[in-house]
Specification:
By secondary structure, this protein is mainly α. It has 2 domains: 77 residues; 87 residues, Serine Threonine Protein Phosphatase 5, Tetratricopeptide repeat. It contains 8 helices and no strands. The protein is elongated and about 70 Å long.
Amino acid sequence: MQAPSLASCWWPGLPQLWWKGDLRAMMLAVLFAVVLNFALTATFVWPEMVSTGSLAAIWTGVITFWAIAAWIGTREVTRIRGRSVEQQQALFINAQMEYLKGHWLEAETLLRELLGIDQHDGDARLMLASLLRHSDRAGEALNELETLELSEAGAKWASEISRERQLASHIQ
């Protein structure tokens, strides 16, 4: 995977949308487009529609919105650049090896580190839920399954989530 470019930060929401597929970022990008189009239309197409004071307030809002979103996007790109995909895959493989050896604490530590990097990692969250079930922590396992089910990655794991739920309910 190529490292994200800081140029993607010029449009609010684009870094999160492009590099992580975050749908909230899509809504942010669309909202910014609507607000910017309104400001441009009010300035150049129908300037008589909005008073000068209101127009100044609109542009101040657009610039402030853009600056804050660019700052957040820059932080996100910097964070994404900090961890390569190869490093994340290595973490997952190490967690999987520890899981298969029955080293629950080590596997949990690696999985939580991985989820700290990318909270939307469905594979890591499902493995963590299974690990918690094996550790007789059914309540925590069910919480992780709920989080996974509500995430975008949840649809991919629907049958596994259902099976893990059944197994966890036998522990409680």
